[in-house]
Amino acid sequence: MKVALGQFAVAPEWSTNLAQCVSLIDKAATEGAKLLILPESIIAADMNDPRITVRTAQPLDGPFVTGLIDALTGKDLTVICCIATPGVSGLTHNCQIVLNASGLVTCYRKLHLYDAFNMKESNDYIPGTELPPIVQVGDIKVGLMTCYDVRFPEVARSLAVRGADLLTVPAAWVRGPGKEWHWEVMVTARALENTCYVAAVGECGPRNIGCSMMVDPLGVAVARAGIAPDLIFAEVDLERIRATREVLPVLANRRFKDPELG
Predict the structure, then answer these.
(1) pTM higher than 0.85 for the full model?
(2) Closest CA relative to residue 109, chosen from 157, 40, 61, 34
(3) What are φ and ψ of residue 169, in 5° steps?
(4) What is the set of active-site residues?
């Protein structure tokens, strides 16, 4: 299955970002992709307005999501991205959503909030309470993770033992000393230790690194973007997963299993 990874710099106006997403949807569909992954927090962003995600949050039936679904009409394409949705007490939910031409498939609320490196995502968001789901896209079982989740290997392992072939990681990975290296190490490790594909898509722009990448089950980066807006493509090959797990049966060789994770 052909997968598209679309990174861009999120603007302060939701309508501008919707137009950017629609353009990426059209390009991905034209190139024959069946799945398009977009970054985290794509409704609005502004380095000078730290509360913008709270003020601009929209419900799942709001104009931003509705606009994405309308853009998918007549297309054999699934889109995965993250948006802020209204919560309680002035907070929001960080929702990773899966959309196709029929509408909203599922929503995953980010488990691990980014309270690290002098940032505190919990000031704006309510953490999720459930392990992320797996969705079927064509022949591929797709597991969902969001940004900071990638630092927690138990989440990826749960998805792998439940049958995921591909893990998707929409992100807004903040720049900082060594942070690009952290991104590369974590994304690669999650693929290699679970012998599955990982597609990690980062927002680019003045604060975040971009650097979207697809890593195969042996830890090889098969597609990469730089720091500028881009749309890259890679194939998810079930035979590649099968062959890798035959020679590197780490999932089958596990000796300790956590019933909560699968």
Answers:
(1) yes
(2) 40
(3) -130, 80
(4) 40, 110, 147
